[in-house]
Amino acid sequence: MLSRLFPARETILASAIMLLLVIVASRFHGFVAPSNLANVFNDTAPLIILALGQTVVILTRCIDLSVAANLALTGMATAMINVALPGLPIPVIIAIAVMLGAIMGAINGVLVWKLAIPPIVVTLGTMTIFRGIIFLISDGKWVNSHEMSAAFTGFPRAAFLGLPVLSWTAIATVIIFAIMMARTPLGRSIFAVGGNPHAAVYTGINVGKTQFFAFVISGALAGLTGYLWVARYAVAYVDIAGGFELEVVAACVIGGISIAGGAGSVGGAVLGAIFLGVVKNALPVVNISPFWQLAISGSAILIAVAFNARAGRAKGRIILKTTEANS
Amino acid sequence: MPQSATPVQTPVVSMDAITKTFPGVTALDQVKLDLYPGQVTALVGENGAGKSTTVKVLTGIYQPNGGTIRIDGTPIAFGNPNAASDAGITAIHQETVLFDELCVAENIFIGHAPRNKLGLIDTREMHRAAQVLLDEIGAPFSTHAQLRDLGIANKHLVAIARALSVDARVVIMDEPTAALSHKEIEELYTLVETLKAQGKAILFISHKFDEIFRIADRYTVFRDGAFVGDGLIADIDENALVKMMVGRAVDQIFPTRTPNLGEDVLQVVGYDHPTEFADINFTLKRGEILGFYGLVGAGRSEFMQSLFGITRPSKGACKINGKIRIIRSPADAVANGIVYVPEDRGKQGAVIGLPIFQNITLPSLKRTSRSGFLQLAEEFKLAREYAQRLDLRAASLDQDVGNLSGGNQQKVVIAKWLATQPQVIILDEPTKGIDIGSKAAVHEFMTELASQGLSVIMVSSEIPEVIGMSDRVIVMRDGRIAAELSGDDLRPETLVRHAADITTAPKRQEA
Amino acid sequence: MSDTAAQTRHIPDRLNSRAFRILRSWETLLLGVAIAIFVINTFTSPYFLNAWNLSDATFNFTEKAMIAFAMALLIISGEIDLSVASIIALASTAMGLAVQYGAGTPELVLIGLGVGLLCGAFNAVFVTILGLPSIVVTIGTMSLFRGISYIILGDNAFRGYPDSFAWFGQGYLYWVFTVEMLFFVVIAIFYGVLLHKTNFGRAVYAIGNNPTAALFSGIRVQRVKFILFLLTGLMSGVAAICLTSRLGSTRPSIATGMELEVVTMVVLGGINILGGSGSIPGVVIAAFVMGLVTFGLGLLNVPGIVMSIFIGLLLIGVIALPRLWSMFTARRAS
């Protein structure tokens, strides 16, 4: 049971994060103060949300490179809606963001499911298309904070029980995902499809359809994050979150989600995202140039993938009986 | 002559004139099959007879092109696997098709887990229900265990528990005993009896005759995708069943030959592997056919792949023509004149996607090319030479090997190796899954090769083939050589006794 | 293809003639697209049919195409390298650093090629020796290589490349023909011959179709893949030299996102992203298609980001349309 709750990968990653915190704290005590840790968490919240969406996609043996473009497009769309209709209530804005994101995810999903185009090709294509559409709808202009309504920009920053709404959104997403992956037929199907697609067919699971839903989930989360991102930074332009899709994939890989599908956990993805978040926030504190961040996350990916592969390497068949009874 | 038994009851499931065609192949040609409640029906046939296709049609994976399936006399069509499952048909497959990353209870209930009021999976109820099922079949592991931590036999038990969990009326067992030990097989038989007593109809697919006569009540025989006959097991004997299966008497298929043995070509000394095999010693003479017999999983293929350089032995040496050679990769093996025709043709043998001629010349490119540049005319010449020697049936040499039948794919793989002019050819289950015509051709050809001075190692699990073809037979058991037999010792009983460890005679394990 | 259909002992080499196969190929379809774009461009902009403008347009694709040829072989073998743009950044940074220590053009070229090879070898070790999936490894090295550039350069830029170094990216051989065009042609021919005319190329196809069967046929699979990663790294080094020479400066953000354009070019060229099939002529035409689209839209004052919509649509469309068509015809047949 214990090994079930604390699989080796997650334990090691959690220890690495703790170690990192201890090292940083020895140089700068303020870093581990609750208020600062809350800031770090809030800063990492978008990455956590997107990493969970990406986890679902990777578990089904796919990849979604369009999440950052989806985020940027939804963000721009919500910002422009807010400018045009300042009175529109925030819940409606959020609903629109989730819907828009889900639709973009569904486009990816349909191309993968119905036309069997490799996911990397599909999302590479939609990634550039979504970015281009942002330019078309915005005419390349920025939407700045003074154009947005106070309610629009205030929502993710509103404090509730000491934490901003953005952080609560990440926490809620983690809880919903933990329940979804463990306790719903869809969650179990997602594992099954990636772990053994052949067997999934035999148990009556539709592989393509499950992958479709994975893309819709990933897209919906990207849409939600799109609004939160634009509102939090109070600016929308074509290039926001450029290259963020790779950080999201990196969080998953570091969190032990196998790119071959079927293996990984919600906890792992969250820890992977937090690891990157802690590194990013700790660098300036310990006087290392933030320019080190990219190289560090790259190295972390390589170490994580090498480590996971070593742990999961198939051993030879065991045929010899060590205690061969000689009659 | 097709013959039918008069049904004493109504069958739960009856397939009538079911036809299933694939591009270029008719897998099932108007077959019929009836399954009765509380009875075990054995589906008998050689590889390629259409048994697996039948299972896939019954479980809704394939949709037949013609014919009717009836449940309790009502025609029904399974559009997908769920429809078959809803109709109470469940299958335990040859390779256990379950999910390594999920726990036992989740594997049992995937697709139909109990839900609570919120619509979420009720884990507590799921584990409780799983425990009840595991107790029922006497499974010795927890419902929380991860599937990947279980052995093959226990995975089978999970598959059976899954079959019971859907309250199936029909249970299909596709070669369930292939990878099990004697004790585990006995336990499985008990389980089959339990299922029978519960009134379930069981379709039992097996190649082992002792097993069929032990637990089946009825039989149905297919040959080359067509129905041959059915009836009660009590009304038939082994010989008659074999005759129906192969369509001719068994002992006529092997070519006769007088072996002409030369000097030692290959000498294997003390080959060891950490987990797969140990203490392998033997020599192979020029012009000899050496059979390797053993049960599935005895380590024969693993040893052959090590000899071919796929895996590395931890100890041991290999002498070719008296000189020690180090083989670290298949490329080294080929350079030293050792070639290997694998059992898994689709995955390891033919490069599906490449045309026939490129498959044949792949290991011989050095000879057909000029300083690294391809010479297509030379390639076609070489490919044609060997394709014709093997009597390959193909529309053109430019055709994708993926479009060939199993037998012709096997010919391409053999042609590929002969074109390298090897000294030793290792054939791993060379006739598994190919039609009888091609089988005879492969046997004929092996004889011809040996007479031309090639040394042949043949791994086979078919006793008649091993005895009919080999000059000498090495029996492997649990990764070691259990016996080396030749001449009068080459009898089916002796082989089986050594392979299954039911001998009281002292074993020859140490060289 | 039933066995009974060919009872004769004689088996012909090929059923379809060479002309027939060429006519039905992906490359022919793509060439049609290229010609159509060319004609449309000619009609929509009076500036299109101008030798100097067309010559300028080639810079849109020559550097990417150099990498795309090597990447094509890598993708046919079933692997991928997403770190190519980051290799450009690192190689360019290394050259810029060398300039600060007074390196001349020959040294810079050696450094550029050397860093490319080294990065390729680094990827190759992870993929072929440690047996890790190349997509993850190269997502990692993509961050790592560019990350090192950022560590070295931060906000700054390297300038002051020697005048003679400008030859690679700004030089002209004769009239409108640039040095980069020469590189493009030479590299295209090299990879075309390597893939289609040599034993090595045959091994690449065999590995891409079935790596296990290729290994079982005596092909040294890991060695071939190692060489392919080296070649891809080397080509990134060549592209780094050309791009740095053309821009005359190095920033760590150089060539950002180029890996995706290279992969797009390869896939558009008819290389199966899952490995096993495709051709170099296809990639050559795809390079021209992408160059023509970018150039033609540029003449119409369409901004670059909007052009990427066309490239994205093209990428999905060229794969989706044939599949939709076969689904449509299959439905009609039944």
Pair with the most extensive interface? A-C, 47 and 46 residues
End-to-end C-alpha gap of chain B: 52 Å
Report the total helices of chain B: 18
Name the poorly predicted regions of chain C. Answer: 1-8
The low-confidence runs of chain B, each spanning 5 or more residues with pLDDT under 50, are 1-7, 503-511
Share of β-strand residues of chain C: under 5%
Radius of gyration of chain B, in Å, reads 25 Å
β content of chain B, as a range?
A: 15-25%
What is the CATH superfamily classification of the domain at 253-337 and 423-434 and 453-503 in chain B? Answer: P-loop containing nucleotide triphosphate hydrolases
Quick recap of the structure?
The complex is a heterotrimer of chains A (about 325), B (about 500) and C (about 325). Chain B has 18 helices and 20 strands.
Structure description:
Chain A: It is a multi-pass membrane protein. Chain A: The chain crosses the membrane at residues 12-32, 44-60, 91-113, 120-138, 158-179, 211-234, 246-279, 291-311. The complex is a heterotrimer of chains A (327), B (511) and C (334). Chain A has 327 residues and is mainly alpha-helical. Chain A has one domain: Orthogonal Bundle (ABC transporter involved in vitamin B12 uptake, BtuC). Chain A has helices spanning 2-5, 8-27, 34-59, 67-84, 90-114, 119-138, 150-154, 165-183, 185-195, 197-202, 207-233, 244-254, 266-285, 293-312; strands at residues 159-160, 163-164. The two termini of chain A are 40 Å apart. In chain A, 54% of the residues are buried. In chain B, the strands form four sheets. Chain B has a six-stranded mixed beta sheet, with helices on both faces. A six-stranded mixed beta sheet of chain B has the order 16-17-18-13-19-20, sandwiched between helices. The longest helix of chain B is centred in the middle third of the chain and has 16 residues, at 182-197. In chain B, helix 4 packs across helix 5 and helix 14 (376-389) crosses helix 15. Chain B is of the alpha/beta class and 511 residues long. Among the domains of chain B are: 1-88 and 217-251, Rossmann fold (3-Layer(aba) Sandwich); 253-337 and 423-434 and 453-503, 3-Layer(aba) Sandwich (Rossmann fold); 349-421, no CATH class. In chain B, a hairpin with a 2-residue loop joins strand 19 (472-477) and strand 20. Mean pLDDT of chain B is 84; it is low at 1-7 and 503-511. With 334 residues, chain C is mainly α. Chain C has one domain (50-315): ABC transporter involved in vitamin B12 uptake, BtuC. Helices cover 71% and strands 1% of the residues of chain C. Chain C has a two-stranded antiparallel sheet with strand order 1-2. In chain C, a hairpin with a 2-residue loop joins strand 1 (172-174) and strand 2 (177-178). In chain C, helix 4 crosses helix 10. Chain C is globular, with a radius of gyration of 21 Å. Chain C starts with 17 loop residues before the first helix and ends with a helix. In chain C, 53% of the residues are buried. Chains in contact: A-B, A-C, B-C.
